[in-house]
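Reminder to self: keep the SMILES exactly as supplied, no canonicalising. Ligand is nicotinamide-adenine-dinucleotide.
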Amino acid sequence: MTQEKVRVAFIGAGKQANWRHYPSVASLPDVEIAALCDLDAGKAEETAKRWGVPKTFTDYEQMLREVEPQAVYIIMGPQVVYEPVSYALRNGHNVFMEKPPGVTLNGIKMLAHYAETNNCISMVGFQRRFVPAMTELKARVEARGPIHSVLVANLKSTRDFASPASTGVLDQLTSDGMHAVDNLRWLAGGDVIRVSSHVATRYIPGPVANAVMAQVEFSSGAVGQLHYSHVTGGSAITEGATAPGVFKAEIHGQNISAHVDAERQSSIVADNGEPEVFDARSYGEALGDNPNHWLGFWHETRYFIDCIKAGTQPHCNIPDAVKTWELIEEIYRASSAPG
Ligand SMILES: NC(=O)c1ccc[n+]([C@@H]2O[C@H](COP(=O)([O-])OP(=O)(O)OC[C@H]3O[C@@H](n4cnc5c(N)ncnc54)[C@H](O)[C@@H]3O)[C@@H](O)[C@H]2O)c1
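Structure tokens returned for the bound complex:
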């Protein structure tokens, strides 16, 4: 018996989509990319040829009407994503979107409202939650009981302030750093109870904060520490970079500790034993030669499609992303730094 494939459509044929999402979706045997849409017809044609997509459009409303996909990937910058995502949700489509999911908290709350009132499955691309070393070591710590403390460090140097995250549409913490804040929430679990922070702008002119340290207490009982910085050692975000700085997490439970670095070594140590050390690029199900595997992009897609098939909400749906955004705002409000 042949298995029915999940019918997916894409809006956006840009860099991130071609780099991360088309290859991940196209690799799944139980999914077909039925159509794609981009305002730029040339990009749409080129992308369709590359991934074997039979139909292209330049008008997403027309595409969604004609193709009636079971899920739509909407992959474009936060400054333009509101209209297509709200249209898709208001018309009952299940949506995968990239982070950051917009430019204002109000906008993302509206998207959450549309998703909830139209019973849509939604997901925001927090692929750091799906890094195989992260998910598997988190589970091993939790096997001993609740996580009690977490540290997430996302560290880069300041080289490329003309990168898309830095055009002025959004501050660094809400655009790029949102991954780290989201990871902190996801690892610690529960709701935010208390936040203290130090938010600073170092070395560069202008108002954009680039050095953030925060401590967050969660209703789970866990305490989280965040270090997000663009003024440390570690590569800056540049196009085509495969090692965008350092993204590390420490996950601590009762007499057990995991250290995760998705692109380098990860380890776990229990009681007074010796640490087990892994190359995170070949951990668990990750395929060692493909960054989309060890960085979590392939696994987030597998999970999203499984949610579509099962009719269940992803843990990182749009309503959940509202909470990550709210924590970012709380980190700014709580800052003890002058100015
Ligand atoms: N998860 C991550 O780690 C990560 C990393 C990098 C980028 N991103 C995110 O990915 C998103 C996309 O970034 P990008 O650099 O690929 O953008 P991009 O500009 O290269 O691509 C966007 C595409 O969308 C198309 N488009 C815009 N409006 C449209 C509309 N109304 N209808 C149809 N097509 C339309 C554009 O023509 C363009 O081809 C951003 O939100 C960015 O923050 C996430």
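Points to follow up:
The longest helix spans residues 318-333.
The radius of gyration is 20 Å.
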